[in-house]
Design a protein that fits this description.
mainly alpha; 8 helices; about 0% strand; elongated; TM2; transmembrane helix; transmembrane; TM2D1-3-like; TM2 domain-containing protein
Length: about 110
Amino acid sequence: MESNRVDMFLMSNNKFFESYHLMEIRDLLAKADDSKLTNVQIQQYKDPTTVLIVSLLAGTFGIDRFMIGDTGLGIAKLLTCGGLGIWTIIDWFLIMGSTKSKNFEKLVTALNY
């Protein structure tokens, strides 16, 4: 793939990924052919800031975990009322990183198809 297309993708989507993933994403996209770019661009990446706001407002009910695709953890968080509030507070600090990691996994999966 052309380097300017890779750079444009990274500039427009860097908030969805951890900073240490960006060089790996650049390498993966540079090695991929142009047909994979469409597959990567149509992916709906979750905004970590939005998920953090949902976690602050309704994290006790596990909605934040359901949003990023952790259904099992969402059910556990719902049934335990956010781990009696402790898990909810911990997620306020971890949910953005979890969201970015899930976005990276989604990108790698899209590149493999």
